[in-house]
Amino acid sequence: MAVLEAKSEIKIQQAEMRSVSGSQAVMEALIAEGVKTIFGYPGGAIMPIYDALFDYPSQLQHILVRHEQGAIHAAQGFARASGKTGVVFATSGPGATNLVTGLADAMIDSTPVVCITGQVFAHLLGTDAFQETDVINITTPVTKWNHQVTDASEIPSALAKAFYIAGSGRPGPVVIDITKNAQLQLFEYEGYKKCEHIRSYRPKPEIRKEYIQEAAKLINEAERPFVIFGQGVILGNAEKEFKAFIEKSGLPAAWTIMGMSAIPTDHPLAVGMLGMHGNYGPNVLTNECDVLIAVGMRFDDRVTGRLDKYAKQAKIVHLDIDPSEIDKNVKTTVPVWGDCKETLPMLTALLEQKQHAAWINRFGEFMNKEKEKCIDAELTPASDIMTMGEVIKTLNELTGGEAIIVTDVGQHQMVACRYAKYKNSRSNITSGGLGTMGYALPAAIGAAFGDPSRTTVAIIGDGGFQMTIQELGTIMQYKPDVKLLILNNNFLGMVRQWQQLFHEKRYSFVDIQSPDFVQVAKGYGIPGRSISDRADLRDALNELLTSKGSQLLEVMVGKENNVFPMVPQGRGVAEIVLSKEEI
Amino acid sequence: MQKQEFTITVYTENQVGLLNRIAIIFSRRKINIESLNTSPSEIDGVHRFTIVIDEFEELVRKICRQIEKQVGVLKAYYNNNDEIVWQELALYKVPTDVIAEQVKVERLLSQHGAKAVVIRKDYTVFEVAGQRAETDALIKVLEPYGLIEFVRSARVAIIKESEGFHKKLTEFEYREPSEAVDENEYLDKNEEVFTM
Asked: What is the ipTM of this complex?
C-alpha cells in the first residue's frame, strides 16, 4: 500500500493521533468523502461496521433494502441522478454475491459505486468458513478495482483510493472487502487523506493537440457530418460544451440510450435515438454521412448492428476518455483521446460557423416516414387497446419533460426511451449495457434519494417488476417519493416479440402470470390503481404524479404489440425495418 | 493478416490479485496463454509480466490497451519475435549410467550446449537455455537414452529497443501516466486521409 501514500500535495487534516477501530475509520472516510446516504443490508461479517454506523445517525443515512441487489441498483440510481458516487454495505458470502449483478451493470454502464463488504476473520480466509466467499476473485471481472483489507491501518488509504478510482476518469464500481478483524482492530488514526494520484492509474489520457486539429479539419470539410453521443457527455459534465460544439457547426446529433437527456430531446439539432429500436433517420443516415463524430460512446453492438455494414463510407472521429475504446469495435480515422469536457471546447474553437440545413432536412424526411409507419399508430392507436407509447405521450404532457424517468428492461424500456421527453440531463436512468431486469424499482428508489427535488417515475414491465418487487418494502419504510408506473402486457414482451418474429411464434415460456399488483402495493402501504380504459389514462397519471408520496399505477396495454422500428440482429443499421412485414 | 507469436511485456505494481485481473482479459476472449512469466523488473517494487500468445496483431493491440487500463498496471507493450531477445530454460533428467557408458550421449549434450546441474549416481540433471526449437531438439535426442523427466520455463524476453522503465516511472509518479505516442495509422499517411 506504499503506493497510496506520497506524492499527494494535500495536507493531512491536523487531527490529533487517536486510537480508533477500523469500523470507525470507515465512517470517518465516508464523511470525509461527502457521503450522506448508504444503501445496505447487515449480516455477521459486517456487524462491527454497522455497530459504528449506529453512532452517526445525523451524518449518515442508511437505507435498509430488502436484498443486496436492491442496494446496489439503488446506489446506481443515486449515482446516475446525482452525479455522486453511490455507496453500498453488504455482508460476506451471500451478501456479497448478491451484489454481482449490480456490479456488472455498473461496470458496463460506467456508474460510480463503492461497495464495502464484510469478510470473515483474516485467519479464516481460505478455510471455507461460515459465509466465506472469495469476493475479490468473484468480482474482479465486474469491478474497475477491488481490494481486500485485512489490517485496520489500511482502511483510510484503501477507501481514499476506492472513491478516487470509482469517480474519476471513466467511472465504475469498486469493491472493498474488509475482514472482520480489521473492522474491530484499534489503530493509531492519523486522519483521512483524499487520494489524488495513483502512479499506475490513468483516469484520462493526455490530449493530443494534433488530433484535435485533424478532427476539426475533417468536420469543417464535411458535407454530411453526423454526431452520435453517449453517456460520456453526461459523465463528463460536458452537456454545455457538447451543445456549444454541435450548435457552432450546425451538426445533427443522435444519442445512444445511455446518452439520452444530455441535451433536451426537443433541441433543434437533436435527431433522435440510435440503435436496434432507435429512430429511422439516425440509423439509415449513419451509412450516408461523410464524417461520423462519436462522442463518449463505445459502439455497442446494439448501436452498430453488423459491423461490416456500419458507416463504411464515413471518416470516423472518436472522442473518448478510455483509450481502450478507440478502435475496439469501429476503426477510427482520428482518435481524440481525453475528457470531452476539455476536448470538446478545444474542438469547437477550431470549427467554422456553419449550417447543414439540407442534410438535417433528410433526418426530417425519415422522421415523417417513421411517424406515418410506426409512431402514429403507437401514440394515437385506432384500437381500444392501449399502447405503451400513448402512456408515455400522456406522461410527457403531464411532466413537461421535467421528471427523472427510470426504466427497467424490455419493450417498455424501448418505448419509454423512444417517446419520453427530457428537458434536463441525468433524467434517463436505465440499465443500458447489461439489460438487467429488476433494475428499475431499486434504481428509482436511489434516484429519489439522489435528487429529491425532481419527480422520479419508474416505468416497469410486469416481468421486471416481479424480479425486485421486494423493494416495495424499502419504499414502505423510508418513503422515497417514487411514482411506480407498471406497463402490463401479460407477457415477457420483448422475448415474445423475438419469438414472434424469429422463432415462428413459438411462445416458449413468456406468458408470465402476475399477482394483483395493486393489492401487493397495498400490502406495503402504497396506494395503487389499475386501469385498462383509455378514458382513465390522463386522470390516473395525473393522480399518480400529484399524489403525496409513492403511488402505483398499473396500465394494461396490448398483449402482442411490437416495438418498431427495429434493426434485426445480424443486419446493418441501414437495413432497419418499420414493420414486421418488412422482416 | 495472420496470427503470429507476440510477446506482451507488462510493468505493474507488485500487488495481490493483479495476475488474475490480467489473466481474465485473455480468458474472456478465449485466448490461450502460451507462456506466462512474472518476475521483478529493473526497478525495485515494479513487477514484470512476460506473456506469449499467438494472435492477430490488431487483437493484441486491443488486449494491451485493456491490460493497461487496469488499476495497478503501469504499461503494456507488445512485440513480435524480431523485436525481442528471448530465452527459455529447460531441465532434462537422464540416467547417469547411460551417459557414463555412452560417450556419444555426452557429445550430443555438449553439442546442444547442455550443462550438468546435478550429477548423482542414479541420474544427472542438465540445463539448456535457448529458444523453443533448441530445447525441443534436445528432447528428441535424449528420448532414446531414457529421458526421465523434462521441464521448460516460461519465456523471458528483453525488448531490443527499450530504454528500460526508470524514466517512465519517474514521469508516472509525478503526473498521470500518459499515453505513449501510439501513432494512428491514418495520421501517419496524412495525404490519404484528406483526399476524399
From this structure: 0.90
Contact of B193 with chain A, judged by CB distance below 8 Å, is answered with yes
Can you name the residues that pair with B76 across neighbouring β-strands?
B10
Angstrom CA distances, A147 to A137, A274, A417, A454, stand at 10, 37, 37, 36
**How many angstroms separate the CA atoms of B91 and A509, rounded?**
59
φ and ψ of A498, to 5 deg: -65, -40
User: Of A22-26, A270-274, B122-126, where does mean pLDDT reach its minimum?
Assistant: B122-126
Beta carbons of A572 and A285 less than 8 angstroms apart = no
Instruction: Identify the band that residue A11 occupies on the pLDDT scale cut at 50, 70 and 90.
Output: very low
Estimate the crossing angle of helix A411-419 against helix A388-399, to 10 degrees: 40
CA atoms within 13 A on the CB side of A578: 17
8 Å CB contact between A199 and B172: yes
pLDDT at A181 over 60: yes
State whether residue B44 sits within 8 Å of chain A by CB: no
Other Cβ atoms less than 10 A from the Cβ of B155: the count is: 22
Query: For A23-32, A383-392, B185-194, which range has the lowest pLDDT when averaged over its residues?
Result: B185-194
CB hemisphere CA count around A425 (13 angstroms): 18
Percent of chain B with pLDDT over 90: 69
Q: What per-residue confidence (pLDDT) applies to B189?
A: 47
Positions of A marked active-site:
68, 130-131, 180, 494
Residue A498 backbone class (left: φ over 0; alpha: ψ -120 to 50; beta: rest): alpha
DSSP string covering A414-451, please? Answer: HHHHHH---SSSS-EE---SS--TT-HHHHHHHHHHH-
Q: How confident is the model at residue B168 (pLDDT cuts 50, 70, 90)?
A: confident
Q: What is the pLDDT of residue A16?
A: 58
Measure Cα distances from A112 to A77, A105, A123, A456, A510 in Å: 10, 11, 32, 20, 34
Mean per-residue pLDDT, A163-169: 98
Task: Say how far apart CA A429 and CA A81 lie, in whole Å.
Answer: 7
Q: What is the pLDDT of residue B166?
A: 85
Residues of B in contact with A328 (CB under 8 A): 62, 65
Task: Report which of A456, A417, A482, A445 is spatially closest to residue A40, judged by C-alpha positions.
Answer: A445
In the Cβ-directed half-sphere of B128, how many Cα atoms lie within 13 Å? 24
Confidence of residue B171 (pLDDT cuts 50, 70, 90): confident
Sign of CA pseudo-dihedral A182, A183, A187, A189: positive
Eight-class DSSP state of A127 = S
pLDDT digits (tens, 9 = 90+) for A287-344: 999 999 999 999 999 999 999 999 999 999 999 999 999 999 999 999 999 999 999 9
Q: How many angstroms separate the CA atoms of B173 and A100, rounded?
A: 33
Cβ-Cβ contacts under 8 Å, B61 against chain A: 327
Distance (Å, whole) CA A325 – CA B44: 32
Window 136-195 of A: residues touching B by CB (8 A cutoff) are: 136-137, 140-141, 144-148, 165
Among B20, B61, B68, select the one facing A137 at the smallest CB separation.
Answer: B20
Using an 8 Å CB-CB cutoff, list chain B residues near A210.
187
Angle between helices A68-82 and A440-450 (to 10 degrees): 50
Instruction: State how far Cα A308 lies from the chain centre.
Output: 28
The CA distance from A276 to A569, in Å, is 8
Report how far apart, in Å, the C-alpha atoms of B142 and of each of A50, A489, B135, B154 are.
66, 74, 11, 21
pLDDT per residue as tens digits for the range A448-483: 999 999 999 999 999 999 999 999 999 999 999 999
Confidence band of A10 (pLDDT split at 50, 70, 90): very low
pLDDT, residue A1, reads: 44
Contact A199 B178 (CB under 8 A): no
CA distance linking residue A300 with residue A75, whole number of Å? 24
